[in-house]
Amino acid sequence: MLFEKISEIYFSPSSTTKEITNKIASNFEGTYEIYDLLNYEKDKEPRRFGDDELVVVGMPVFAGRIPKIAREKLQRFKSDGTPTIAFVNIGNADVGDALLELTDLLKDNGFNVIGAAIFVSQHSIFTNVAKGRPDEKDLEKIKEFADKCGENLDSTADIEVPGNKPYKEYKVVPFKAGCDEMLCTFCYDCVPACPQGAIPDDDPVVTDVDKCDGCSACIYICPEDARSFVNEGFDEAAAAFAEKFSQRKEPEFFF
Ligand SMILES: Cc1cc2nc3c(=O)[nH]c(=O)nc-3n(C[C@H](O)[C@H](O)[C@H](O)COP(=O)(O)O)c2cc1C
Ligand code: SF4
Ligand code: SF4
Known about the structure:
CATH class of the largest domain: Alpha Beta
Distance between the termini: 19 Å
CATH topology of the largest domain: Rossmann fold
Structural class: alpha/beta
Number of strands: 10
Oligomer: single chain
Bound molecules: flavin mononucleotide, iron/sulfur cluster
Radius of gyration: 18 Å
Largest sheet: 6 strands, mixed
CATH superfamily of the largest domain: Flavodoxin domain
């Protein structure tokens, strides 16, 4: 089926959510539009979507919720019954209430959610967990999910997904991104990449730890590997987390 527009809306600090959103959208034909919520105020304005379009929305899970700043940005998108594919992307730990929160928000804003999923990718903080995912097996599952969504485009069923209300309290992780001054070449790429405005534009080796929520965007964008989580106890926490969540989780679909 050919769509007037296929819009991809994602928030993806370490780029795996973006990769999965792209993969799902590429299963459909039409003109693609990208809404990258990491820095979208400087990009395109949000808009109201029509019922002749398709929307794919992907969000990472932060402490069992969708990231607060992404939620605030997504709230501004409205729709008149647009068929919408929604997924959250976990780091092989817990999904919490994130998928329920995402589908509730979309439905409240007029989107018709025709398929929902939980996918699994490399953990953006503890990178030894689900390392290298999405892998070949995940890509096959993503394709399978997109195919099923394609068969479900006309559905108006109220999809049930896991999660509870009230949603979990917001919890900010204790890890903050720091910078190794010896490695930084002052390219300033990390400054606009930070969704929290935590990296001053006149001094990129500094992080405002009160603003940083540990999203990891600056770490992934830095071409010199100058930025990392530098907190005391990080390595021990990473080892304990890797042991706790060593068992591979598989994607789940909801129709
Ligand atoms: C602040 C923060 C909190 C996170 N909380 C969770 C969580 O509750 N459960 C989980 O499975 N993964 C969690 N993760 C991992 C990410 O959800 C996961 O790695 C996701 O795939 C990242 O997507 P991205 O590559 O698009 O940034 C967290 C990551 C960050 C940065
Ligand atoms: S992206 Fe890396 S190298 Fe560039 S300014 Fe930021 S910390 Fe320095
Ligand atoms: S400084 Fe903190 S909030 Fe900003 S991009 Fe880096 S990890 Fe994310």
